[in-house]
Amino acid sequence: SEQNLTGADVPDALLTRDGRAQAGSWCQDICHFGTEVVLVSPLRRAVETACLAFQETPVPLELCRCARELWWDEHANTPGPLVQMLELLQGLPRGHDVSGVEEALVPGADDPLDEDASIELLRQTLQEYTETTIAVVCHWGVINALCKADPMNCEIID
What we know:
Structural class: alpha/beta
Number of helices: 7
């Protein structure tokens, strides 16, 4: 992301050119995993990743507020305004297919109060799906907290 490249706390950072290329490189092979639904962090870099990686598939793309990165006190991990996301989606492949945008970006009264509660809500959300193969396009901290894994960029954790 722009934040990783510059070291600055860039608000809701976008992917870099290399990040977009890396995400897009998955588009020919991602269909082989049998994904039935994709849950996507509401941070723009994750939305870019999902839209680029899944651009050749008809798999549903759903924003999921509880899949956002931890360290909520950092600007890079705070979702931007709805209008900013809508503008981004207009320029992305499958951007018009992304659902749950407003729900994921507008805080609700029942939102988790902290990162731990958010991870628990994500765990519960995943358990409620009837699909057996769910992709979650999110961030290192979420994957580490959920799976106890130390993933690299664009790594698949089973």
